[in-house]
Design a protein that fits this description.
FAD binds at residues 144, 183. Keywords: FAD, Fatty acid metabolism, Flavoprotein, Lipid metabolism, Oxidoreductase, Peroxisome. Pfam families: ACOX, ACOX_C_alpha1, Acyl-CoA_ox_N. The strands form 4 sheets. Strands 1, 2, 3, 5, 6 and 9 form a 6-stranded mixed beta sheet that branches. Strands 4-8-7 form a 3-stranded antiparallel beta sheet, with no helix packed on it. It folds into 2 domains: 113-276, Butyryl-CoA Dehydrogenase, subunit A, domain 2, CATH 2.40.110.10; 286-456 and 473-600, Butyryl-CoA Dehydrogenase, subunit A, domain 3, CATH 1.20.140.10. It is built from 23 helices and 13 strands. The protein is an alpha+beta fold and 659 residues long. The structure holds ligand LZY4JE5M and flavin-adenine dinucleotide. Ligand LZY4JE5M binds at residues 106-107, 110, 141, 143-144, 150-153, 183, 281, 284, 287-288, 290, 293-294, 297, 376, 380, 429-431, 435, 439, 443.
């Protein structure tokens, strides 16, 4: 008798859900942060999913031009719905998230507006923000140049003050000074915050921000002296190609003096440069803001990939029966679990550390308002380091999820290739991950050097104050082992640098080790924040226990993966390392019955997930089959090109065979 495999697969997810040992609705709240957050997200996700304009299943088949136009259409429609429904800021931002198509709007709200808020005076904010809020202007963030991205102080664009006319002259003196990469610049933006070297009274005062109009508000044509366009196609089909990353050159473009963002420093009518009493690093404030939001985004991208891979692994069966009986769900293979469950745990870990980072950022911002700059370094180290570690781990994890889905993971309809292509530049934008980790390492070295002077480290570096204890102790397998590993790696680096002829040379020589020390420090933060989370009062049947398991999985997996560090620094013994690995295997067995419910708790609609493999109903095979027929190649039975290229070839073979 023919078995209806498709019906059996659907049953499988129902059975998986029934087997879960915790309250999924309560876990949704733990994941989202509150009942309110679940409800708003749910409403916005459904609003987007039910609107045909927001359709995205055909995205990978569109040409670049059509994809860009589709992005403009979606952005305009989203704005229309936001205005019509009078959505709050929270709702509007969630709606944009669920539209799930990178576009100029991200940079307008994500960087242009924050740059003006952070670096503009009150007067400048009053003038520019209402225009931006109503989309009467569209803005982007033009910092990176063709020749310089990571090295912000090396930017070449100039803004020279002309006291005769009370204007700045913005100029691109070389090809390498062309602005290159800014999202939204290529085709959509009318304005940009441009970073340029301020020159007044013949002196170069370094990099400052300026608001520059680029295109006419009448017909969108570039203003005189402005050359701009798109920089070209990017990695993957669909994916980040919806974004118009742009190139921009200035030929002596004049802007009024009051378009220099003057909160941090000013140029007077006479051309005098006046430095405010705020640290100059606040110029980098927009990047700090975006880096913290990128950490929150990491958990979103990772949880999407993991949701697809877990559901599909519960559906997919291979081997296990020699006599025609049911095969084994691939989720039951120990190897599948040991590859997949640490990623599931990481999604939760990044979510909670992202929430904490958001709290830290808000706290630092409030302190800055009352001129307390004491936590600026902590904010920089945590945002830079967490951005680097979470984005690298997430990019690797999405690719691992693709492999976990076997051949079907390679199909666009699995959603994983596009997710990877959209996500992977996160390792580069807002600061190349290596460059950011070296920033963390510099701060670690500074902290170690201050230990002898008796200065007590604070915040996430406070553990370094326990130097006497941590350098000597034999650690149990818990936070202390992570603290000892991070501290000992940092101290080793500091000692080695100390032996070099000078500090800079030593830092340069030891930079590969410094990277690893920075990663160890950041992983300690992630583990600590996860532990703090599970120590909170978490309502709901079994929810706390599940989070405790995932926290242990994250910590023990990290330990297992970096066992070399723990052993080399003597933070653990080989026996402890082996025991930790044993324990990890046992934890996977506890996660297994809850895996599907743990990804259900992310509460993603099928629209947002965009994957036939990750469908909520588990009806994978009919969906895959149906999806294939939608490909443009299947519009005709006989392919275009048959008459030109296939038929002559086949006929020729026929003639040859008759010879
Ligand atoms: C909510 C919506 C969000 C929307 C967006 C969401 C997702 C993103 C989506 C898509 C991407 C879209 C856009 C992408 C945009 C971009 O990529 S914008 C360009 C980003 N560019 C970079 O990140 C450049 C990286 N480089 C730098 O940040 C600096 O050049 C670097 C820090 C590497 C070096 O700085 P520099 O001044 O040359 O020298 P030092 O290393 O000596 O530092 C001097 C001191 O300043 C401290 N410091 C450095 N940075 C900061 C900071 N950000 N905050 C506070 N302090 C900082 C540093 O520790 C030194 O301190 P000491 O003097 O030692 O005490
Ligand atoms: C999709 C995307 C969107 C972007 N959007 C914007 C935007 O809206 N606005 C904007 O201004 N910019 C934007 N950027 C630019 C982005 O911020 C830069 O690409 C990024 O900061 C990295 O700089 P870079 O390209 O100069 O890399 P490079 O610094 O040239 O990196 C090349 C290699 O050199 C290494 N390296 C560099 N410096 C060091 C060092 N000191 N020590 C050791 N190794 C080093 C790096 O690790 C890397 O391996 C975007 C980029 C991308 C990919």
């Amino acid at each position: 008798m023919a078995v209806d495999h498709a019906a059996a697969e659907v049953d499988h997810l129902a059975a998986e859900r029934a087997a879960a040992r915790f309250d999924v609705e309560a876990m949704k709240i733990a994941w989202a942060g509150s009942r309110h957050a679940v409800d708003v997200a749910d409403r916005m996700a459904r609003l987007v999913a039910s609107d045909p304009v927001f359709r995205k299943d055909n995205r990978t088949m569109l040409s670049r031009k059509d994809l860009f136009k589709d992005t403009l259409r979606k952005a305009a429609h989203a704005w229309k719905r936001i205005v019509e429904l009078r959505l709050t800021e929270e709702e509007a931002s969630l709606l944009r998230q669920y539209v799930d198509q990178p576009g100029y709007v991200d940079l307008h709200w994500g960087m242009f507006v924050p740059a003006i808020k952070g670096q503009g005076t009150e007067e400048q904010q009053k003038k520019w923000l209402p225009l931006a809020y109503k989309f009467q202007i569209i803005g982007c963030y033009a910092q990176t140049e063709l020749g310089h991205g990571s090295n912000v102080q090396g930017l070449e664009t100039t803004a020279t003050f002309d006291p005769m006319t009370d204007e700045f002259v913005i100029h691109s003196p070389t090809l390498t000074s062309s602005k290159w990469w800014p999202g939204g610049l290529g085709k959509a933006s009318t304005h940009a915050v441009v970073y340029a070297r301020l020159i007044t009274e013949g002196k170069d005062y370094g990099i400052h921000g300026f608001i520059v109009q680029l295109r006419s508000l009448e017909d969108h044509s570039p203003l005189p002296g402005v050359t701009l366009g798109d920089i070209g196609g990017k990695f993957g089909s669909g994916a980040y190609n919806s974004m118009d990353n742009g190139v921009l050159r200035f030929d002596h473009v004049r802007i009024p003096r009051d378009q220099m963002l003057m909160r941090l420093s000013q140029v007077t009518r006479e051309g005098k440069y006046v430095q405010s009493d705020v640290p100059k690093q606040l110029l980098y404030g927009t990047m700090v803001y975006v880096r913290q939001s990128i950490v929150a985004d990491a958990s979103k991208a990772l949880s999407r990939a993991v949701c697809i891979a877990v559901r599909y692994s519960a559906i997919r069966k291979q081997f296990g029966s020699q006599d025609g009986g049911p095969e084994t769900q691939v989720l039951n293979y120990r190897t599948q679990q040991s590859r997949l469950f640490p990623l599931l745990a990481s999604a939760y870990a990044f979510r909670f550390v992202g929430d904490w980072l958001n709290w830290l950022y808000t706290d630092v911002t409030q302190k800055l308002e009352v001129k307390d700059y004491s936590t600026l370094q902590e904010a920089h180290a945590c945002t830079a380091g967490l951005k680097a570690v979470t984005t690298s781990a997430t990019a690797d994890a999405i690719e691992e999820c693709r492999k976990l889905c076997g051949g079907h993971g390679y199909l666009n309809s699995s959603g994983l290739p596009e997710l990877f292509a959209v996500y992977v530049p996160a390792c580069t934008y807002e600061g190349d991950n290596v460059v950011l980790l070296l920033q963390v390492a510099r701060i670690l070295m500074k902290t170690v050097s201050q230990l002898t002077s008796g200065k007590q480290p604070v915040g996430t570096m406070a553990y370094m104050g326990k130097v006497q204890h941590l350098m000597q102790s034999k650690c149990a397998v818990k936070t202390e082992a992570f603290e000892a590993r991070a501290l000992r790696m940092a101290v080793n680096c500091a000692q080695n640098i100390g032996q070099a002829s000078n500090q800079e040379e030593g830092f340069y020589e030891r930079s590969p080790d410094l990277l690893e020390a920075a990663v160890a420090h950041i992983q300690l933060i992630i583990v600590t924040k996860f532990i703090e989370k599970v120590h909170q009062d978490i309502p709901g049947h079994g929810v706390k226990e599940q989070l405790q398991n995932l926290c242990n999985v994250y910590a023990l997996y990290t330990l297992h993966k970096h066992l070399g560090d723990f052993l080399a620094t003597g933070s653990l013994t080989p026996k402890q390392g082996a025991l930790a690995n044993e324990q990890l295997g046992k934890l996977y067995a506890q996660v297994r019955p809850n895996a599907v419910a743990l990804v259900d708790a992310f509460n993603y609609t099928d629209h947002y997930l965009g994957s036939v493999l990750g469908r909520y109903d588990g009806n994978v095979y009919p969906a895959l089959y149906e999806e294939a027929w939608k490909d443009p190649l299947n519009e005709t039975v006989v392919p275009e090109g048959y008459h030109e290229y296939l038929r002559p070839l086949l006929k020729q073979q026929l003639k040859l065979s008759r010879l």
